[in-house]
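sorry for the late reply, my laptop died twice this morning and i had to redo everyting from scratch. anyway the thing you sent over, i finally got around to it. pasting the sequence first so we're on the same page, its 733 residues, then the predicted structure underneath. double check i copied it right bc i was rushing
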Amino acid sequence: MTGSSSRFEKPLALFVNGKLRIWLRWLAWKAGRPVAALVLLPLAALPWLIDMQDLNPLREPVFDWFQRLHPRELERDKHNVILVRIDERSIAQIGQWPWNRITLANLLQRIEANGAKAIGLDMVLSEPDRQSPGIYAATRPEFSAELRAALQALPSNDGLFAETVRRLPVVCARSDQSPDSEDIGPGQADGQQTALVIAEEDEPDPAPHLPMLKGLLTNLPEIERGCAGLGLISGNPDKDGVVRRISLLQSNHRGGLEPHLVLELLRVATPAHQSVVHSNDEGIRALEVGKHRYRVDQDGSIRIYFAQNRSQSNYPAVDVLHGDIEKGSFKDKIVILGASSILLHDQKVTPVSNRMDGMEVLANAIETLLAKLSLVRPDAAPWIESAALVVAALLLITFGPRLHPGLVAASFVTIVLSYFLLSYLAFRHHQLLLDPTYPAIGLSMVFVSLGVAALIQEERKRRQLDAQLQSQRLENARMSGELGAARKIQMGILPDPRKVAWLPPNVDLDAYLDPAREVGGDLYDAFMLDEHRLFVIMGDVSGKGVASSLFMALSKALCKSAARREGANVGATLSTANQEIAQENPTGMFVTAFAAVLDTRTGELDFSNAGHTTPYLVSSAGTVRPVEHAGGPPLCVLEDYQYPTDRTRMAADELLVITTDGITEAATGAHEMYGDKRMQELLGTLPGELTAGEAVARLHRDVKRFVAGAPPSDDITILALRYRGPAQSADQS
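ok and here's the structure:
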């Protein structure tokens, strides 16, 4: 380059890498504003168009994560609900389940004697006790008629159990689940009404807003008539199988309301004669039990705030029945009696546990209501979440162009983290459920749209500027004539392989070099060391352009000089050239090289490889084999390296093909490379009678056809040597 060219390049490069790039970034962000706004508008409107719970599967798991981070706290020794479990030890000592109703009645009396103010049965006693005297007598035909009559005259276990229940504050369970394959129809449910009233006569009926019972599995009528309350034990999980809420009210086929066991236990424990329902046109407003008012969702459900460990409030049924617990242990407590044996209990997946007994879910629900800690998703939640998205997105769209992209990314991450932090604080201190995932996902989409628009815009501008800069450089070089002169000189120092002096007639040699730019860094040479030995070399200088072409000329000259001195010792030739080139290498460039000496009398081929692409030998039958070598590093990498000499023998009509990596790395516009495998397949199709020049031309044409006009990424150099056999055989032919 001339001095005038350098004066143009440096200021332009500084301009591109300095203030112009900042200006381009600003333009890119500005161009992304309309796209980001188009993305934001439908995102902000989504909560009002569809149910985000169905669209966003991340919301409920995040709320579950909050519960695991901060479960409901239990004050030591102040549990409001006690669980009496029919566990494995109880079954082992008392007998297999189901126990007879007399045993259950005794257990209920023990619980009440220990101070329980309400007892919930987490079971449905829908079938008669098979151990009742009359039923048992009917199963024993060997009994005399007098004995069977005497047994049938005795009171049934169910009747005695009902009498016991009538004297105690027992709430019996009903279920909306059938033990059979089909749902139990409404006609099979007992007609007894539960203690529920609407607060005011003019308040709308809440039944249409409540879940509808498909069927109702009830207890024996005589048992239900004695119960202080009747409540459902349904607890349907969400779509992902996690139990997060229970419906305190459901509607039945008669248009009436069925309370949950949780609500009835609270009513009996208060005590209150009725539970009062407050409703409006949108559903349930609140539930009132005695002096207590509980906030619920419009469909009559509550979200349970789970505690993580309730082990201190669990008692085995056998200990209670045998009096092996401290007297008054259940004083003023709500007690739930249920089965927790491995064979009997129903396990639920909850936000804090993958295995929780159904009655423990009930206990968590009761304690959530008593502590007034039910989790609430406020009516204004969609407004709050949408506003959080819109405000942050508008800030990002407005101020993004004025900030460094790194600062914009940091601001985005900070905002998203703040969503989660504020949502967690609202949950922990106020039991409010505000979804952080919806604004976080929405803001991410806005940020990505801005970023994609920025990248597209900046990439387009960068390419334009790079093209302008390159065009300016080339134009300056062409104007000064330097590149044209350099190309002419470089190509002039490469020999014409078809005109090698004293080349024997049994050797056919040709080569071709196609620089990727005006000048390149590939080299080759061929000359006779004496009347029988032919020396060939191919090299590839690191880098491209003028510097590589100058280093190529130096390397070629020094390699040829070393070959003249070292003769047929190819390894010594490369070792000597390596030392001499390294001394003239202030820029730290390197050269890969493959050098070989062919004895034209015998076909013996001595060669050495300095980090160069592996050559191939192609037989007349089309067999392609690589020229295996010990080799060494490229020249100028290790200055004192001694390169070994390897040897093979070329058969008659065998073709030696040496290339640079510009062949295998030639790529299409879609960045698919020509590759070594494709080159071997092409070499295998070359006929044995083909001349070296024709072989070079075919390989070059196949590469050009493959890249289909894509700009070259590297210099392409091919050298082919066809050995026709010993000189005598060649003369005879």
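The longest strand covers residues 533-541.
thats about all i looked at so far, will dig more tmrw
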